[in-house]
Request: fold
Amino acid sequence: MTLRGIVANNLRRLRAEKKVTQEELADRAGLNRKYPSLLENEHYAASVDVLEKLAIALDIDPVELFRKNS
Reply:
């Protein structure tokens, strides 16, 4: 799996665990409301700055977005 895929899967999983919608996540992170969907579906690769905003919005350590889950 690519790093983009790992980030996409982790973002989707962590967002669901926190019971946050994509639109709510976008609002918390100050992003376009469609952006989380585009990341989760691997259409876009997020910059480091965006990953930091998403981690803050989800109240997680940014490294969690890169963890390979088996």
User: Anything to note?
Assistant: The chain has a mean pLDDT of 96. The two ends are 11 Å apart (CA to CA). Helices lie at 3-17, 22-29, 35-40, 48-58. Residues 3-17 form the longest helix (15 residues).
